[in-house]
Amino acid sequence: MPTPMPDDWQRALVIAAHPDDIEYGIAAAVAVWTAAGKEVHYLLATRGEAGMAGVRPEEAGPLREEEERRSAAVVGVTEVEFLDHRDGVLVEGPELRRDLAAAIRRHKPELVVTGYFGATWTPPGVSPAYVNSADHRALGQSVMDAVADASNEWIFPDLAEEPWRGVRYIAVGEMLDPPHEVDVSSAVELAVASLAEHRRYLELLSDDPVDMQARQVVDMSTMTEDGRRRVGFRLFWG
């Protein structure tokens, strides 16, 4: 049985590659945290401008940014920052690490959260596995490295922000066998409403009503076989 996530922190930074990534599960945990008085900020590496079939990037980017800001507000997040890397071609390496490290220094989190970034992923009861997004893989490893970069004044000495050594934990999303979990039974409806704010995006994914899609995704990402509601994480020291 997973153990509860530690709560001896006050400020978290949730880092994702694209608008809507956070809403595929993690937003339910965010809603629990903000309801408990925690401060949570979002950092998006891209604006998701390559993610809407038939919609040109110059139109999709601002649209998806606005949907993400509305989505964040539903779960109590008022600060959402975009790094403006190009969607679809994130590269694990010094350029991305530098921008992430600077953001970590600006936001000063004690907890850094990011999504699962393994090569493949398998939702419960689904076979075969899906190939994980190249952006998710590149971002996740860069987040892990950027936490250390943010604390070291010599790795990116040109950064204007002062080093931040206050990250206590890094939490990586984990659906199948998480060592830690957040009980999100009180936040399911908020999580559904948060994902549903990505209305234009979801309308292009399926003919099903947006609210139905959102509920299906939240159910898949939070419901355990015994009917509990949880968001799982794999935890690392910062």
From TrEMBL:
<dbReference type="InterPro" id="IPR024078">
    <property type="entry name" value="LmbE-like_dom_sf"/>
</dbReference>
<dbReference type="InterPro" id="IPR003737">
    <property type="entry name" value="GlcNAc_PI_deacetylase-related"/>
</dbReference>
<dbReference type="Pfam" id="PF02585">
    <property type="entry name" value="PIG-L"/>
</dbReference>
<protein>
    <submittedName>
        <fullName>PIG-L family deacetylase</fullName>
    </submittedName>
</protein>
<keyword id="KW-0862">Zinc</keyword>
